[in-house]
Design goal:
The chain is of the alpha+beta class and 258 residues long. The protein is built from 5 helices and 10 strands; from the N terminus they run αβαββββααβαββββ. Helices cover 23% and strands 35% of the residues.
């Protein structure tokens, strides 16, 4: 029976908890490139990371998994050196994983102002015939609003009446986003997007991977959007401060090859 690339990626992630030795067979050991800067390159680096985990501590619950061509991207509830949420991206060649990128952050201990968590909300994949249109919408949104800062155009992209927010500090709707931006400005905190590196999607779900700065620290932004009727209606994200180069365990770069 043929197993999909999506299932292979999920099985590999689950093996962090289960210890399933067969899962590593889905990785090409000669070509595995690692973009998590805290992990050494290749399968050896992955194995070294697993060895460092306190025995029996790892927990993995893949909440959402999507496939876009040779890429699989997932959103996961982790206990991985402590409770975390994360996005992972895997690139496949000839049915084997050859490259991995991710973004991780500490899991919040309480819901956001609209009582939503970082991981709850819709999971149903639909409108697969609209994948490319939805990716184009999100690409335009990220470049126009987030990179260029044209916040007056938010309503062109976001359905204010139905916009559900899973960011830990922001409430639903455009008003919640506006209030959060205003609160940050009062504290002298800036959130900047410099460049969008990749947009991946399946049906009504689209992931944008961008580079920028938060509070003047180099930051990787992974934003997952749900699109309905040509508008963004739901948002999840993980922001990760990029390690200073002196602490990198590989030289592949956080966004290399994306």
């Amino acid at each position: 029976m043929t197993i999909s690339n999506r299932d292979k990626a999920v099985t590999l992630l689950n093996s962090i908890e289960t210890g399933d030795q067969n899962a590593v067979s889905y990785v090409n050991p000669q070509k595995y490139t690692q973009h998590n800067l805290a992990v050494a390159d290749g399968l050896a680096g992955f194995g070294e990371l697993l060895q460092a985990l306190p025995k029996g501590s790892a927990r993995v619950n893949v909440i959402r998994a999507f496939q876009d061509g040779d890429y699989v991207f997932t959103q996961t509830d982790y206990n991985f050196f402590g409770p975390k949420v994360g996005f992972d991206i895997f690139r496949f060649e000839e049915g084997k994983i050859v490259e991995h990128w991710d973004n991780l952050d500490i899991k919040a201990d309480k819901p956001n102002p609209s009582n939503r968590t970082q991981l709850d909300g819709s999971t149903e994949i639909k409108d697969t015939d609209k994948t490319e249109a939805n990716k184009a919408l999100v690409t335009d949104f990220v470049n126009t609003v987030l990179v260029n800062g044209e916040y007056d155009k938010l309503s062109q992209f976001i359905d204010d009446n139905n916009y559900l927010q899973h960011n830990t500090a922001i409430a639903d709707g455009l008003s919640g986003l506006g209030q959060a931006i205003e609160a940050m400005a009062k504290q002298g905190i800036t959130m900047e997007y410099f460049k969008n590196h990749k947009v991946l999607g399946e049906g009504n779900f689209v992931l944008a991977v961008s580079e920028g700065a938060f509070a003047d620290k180099p930051t990787s932004y992974y934003d997952l959007f749900r699109v309905e009727n040509g508008k963004i209606v739901e948002h999840w994200d993980v922001m990760e401060t990029i390690l200073p180069q002196a602490r990198w365990k590989n030289t592949n770069g956080k966004f290399g090859n994306l």
